[in-house]
Structure formats: C-alpha cells, structure tokens
Specification:
The complex is a heterodimer of chains A (about 220) and B (about 40).
Chain A: H1 2-21, H2 36-63, H3 66-98, H4 106-127, H5 131-146, H6 148-159, H7 178-212
Helix pairs in contact in A: 1-7, 2-3, 2-5, 2-7, 3-4, 3-5, 3-7, 4-5, 4-6
Chain B: H1 5-41
C-alpha cells in the first residue's frame, strides 16, 4: 500500500518536472519534445512486457505452472496496452513535428506490425476452447512472437532511413541535459513501477477467474 | 515558465490521479473477492 501511494506521488512529481522543471529540447517545435518523457517509457514498458510474457511462456511450457500462464497473458495484455499508448503519443508528436499523424515511417510501420502480431496472440487465446491446449498454443506463440520484437523495435528503424529522432532522449548521448536526464530516468522508473502494479492486479484477476472455471472434480 | 504549461501539467495530473484512484479501487475490490474465495474454500 505504501509503495503504491509512493508510486502515485512519484508519477505526479515526474509530470510536474517534465513540464515545469526541464527545458524543451532544441530542434523541436515549441514544447513538443516534452511528450518524450511519456512516449519513450511507454515504449520501454511495452518491450519489457513482451519480454516478461516470453519468459513466463517458456516457464509455463517447462513446468506447466498456471501462475506462469497468468503472468504471460497479463504481460502480453499490458504490452499491447503500452504499445498502443506509445503509438498514440508518437502519432501526436509526429503531427506536431512532421505535420501528419501517420507517415508510414519505418518505426511507425514496425509498431503496427508488432501490434498485429500481439493482436493475433489474443485471437489465438480466445479461439481455442480447451484451456490446457489454449495455454500451450499461446505459450508457443508468445515465444515466437517475441523473436520479432528486437528486429521490429531495434533493427528495422536503424537499417532504414527514418524521421524518428534517435538521440534526443538517449541517456547514453554525452550532450543530454542533466535536468532532462534526471526526469527521463525518473519517468522510466515510474512507468516500470506502474507496470508492476498493473501486472500484479491483472494476474490476481486471472487467478480469481480461474477459480470460477469448472474443474474436473466438480463433475464427479 | 511558458504560457499554457501550467494548464497542461494540471490536466495531466488530473488524468494521472484518476488512473491511480481507479487502480486503488480495483485493488480493494480484488482483495475483497480474494477474501471471499478464501472464506468459501474453508
């Protein structure tokens, strides 16, 4: 409870700092660069979620542990949610900087492909009626789906010409403003905390739903 | 401070606290349901 309250306050501090403490990055129209304090952590959490989903799926296949399946499903759902949020915030930024919400930039195209890949994961889960088979199919699909993530997120946008800014919020770049760096890292931490909170909630909901499912013993 | 940034900050804070409040309520409801299912099992 205390951790959750602290996270709520921490996120509020990050919002205030992102708009009122830092300076807008040079080279972007007006104050538009501030959206990256939210857009980049959303993309980071989406990637982290898909990684967690893949690891949990592999664990489920190895141990047939129901908790691992709940984790895999919850992480995939949150990954999808944060991926949509990153797409929406990216699109708003694109409108302000490039004049159009959608430009079929390599990064925009790759995120759409990623959304479709994980959309198919949920379609697969809802299409198989047998719970055991559903879990196995979903686990195998999640592992296969994750193999595209590094390629679509890190490789494709770097091997093709892209409008997407690469170095504005990259903490490894030596020229990054210290104030910006502090708020950016704080935002990454806040979003990761929010992800953990939501992940645990979703897993508890799935567990409760699982308890309602008819079990073999109920029919005897 | 640039004009309008205070307003944007305020709107963002309202949205964030709305989300946080929803998560807290959800957390409580789930806890209640978990309690009920544990009581049922006993």
């Amino acid at each position: 409870m205390i951790l959750k309250a602290m996270l709520s306050i921490w996120m509020a501090v990050i919002i205030v700092a992102a708009f009122l403490y830092t300076e807008a990055a040079v080279g972007f129209p007006g104050e538009t660069s501030r959206i990256l304090f939210f857009h980049v952590p959303q993309a980071w959490v989406a990637t982290l979620s898909f990684l967690v989903s893949m690891i949990a799926s592999a664990t489920y296949l190895a141990k047939r542990n129901l908790k691992a399946d709940y984790l895999a499903q919850s992480a995939a759902e949150l990954g999808f949610l944060f991926c949509v949020l990153a797409t929406v915030t990216g699109s708003i930024f694109a409108k302000a900087t490039w004049g159009s919400f959608w430009n079929w930039d390599p990064r925009e195209t790759s995120i759409v492909i990623l959304l479709m890949i994980y959309g198919a994961y949920f379609a697969l889960r809802s299409a198989v009626p047998d719970p055991e088979r559903k879990r196995v199919f979903a686990a195998v699909y999640s592992i296969l789906a994750f193999t595209t993530v590094p390629f679509l997120i890190f490789v494709v946008p770097r091997i093709t010409a892209s409008l997407h800014p690469e170095n504005t919020m990259n903490p490894t770049q030596p020229g990054m403003d210290p104030k910006t760096l502090k708020v950016f890292l704080g935002s990454l931490l806040a979003y990761t905390g929010l992800f953990v909170w939501m992940l645990r909630l979703k897993m508890r909901i799935l567990r409760l739903e699982g308890l309602k499912e008819p079990r073999f013993g109920d029919f005897i | 401070m640039k004009e309008g940034l205070g307003f944007v900050t305020g709107v963002n804070l309202i949205i964030w606290f709305g989300i946080a409040f929803y998560l807290f309520v959800l957390d409580r409801r789930i806890k209640k349901l978990e309690q009920e299912s544990t009581d049922k099992d006993r």
